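Friendly challenge for the regulars: who can give me the structure tokens for this chain first? No prize, just bragging rights.
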Amino acid sequence: MSKEVILEAAAQVIRQKGYHGASMADIAKAVSLEKASLYHHFSGKQDILLELLDRAIDLVTKRMETVMAEQLPADEKLRMAVRAYLGTLSEQGDLVSVLLLEHRSLDPEYHSRHIPHRDNFEQMWRLLIQEGVAAGLFLDNDVPLTVRGLMGVMNWTITWYRPGGKQTLDQIADHFSSIFLNGLLR
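First reply, four minutes later:
Bragging rights claimed.
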């Protein structure tokens, strides 16, 4: 049994039951292993959670780095970044759900190891907004608050978006981008 298969199953179990509701036995059952066999790969449930969080934050960070490397105006980058992020939420729903909903379940020593990665990801969004402000494209006097608002809108999508719904994920991403770039006023 590969570590990758175990982690995919763990993400699914944790998304369905929540971190505190999921047990090592649940994860073992999902991959048809004895519970004791999981300890060959992981020291415990906290170790699994940290590995899932690391994988998720690495994934979204790499996609954001790709967007940031583009030689485009900040408004176009913002549209690309929103599409990339929401795409990741859709493609990796179990993994990203764990990232967004379960990071508070980390023990303090694991939490302090994870937070700098999350802060780095958020900083990339701040740099994108600041880039737009510096270019005269955006008017924003509180970049951190703007980024948190945008992230909140996008993160909440995991609770209601369903593939095959009324709008595609790209349409939703474009709508969110338009609201943040243009506002609601005529």
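The chain has one domain: 51-182. Residues 1 and 23 are 18 Å apart (CA to CA). Your move, everyone else.
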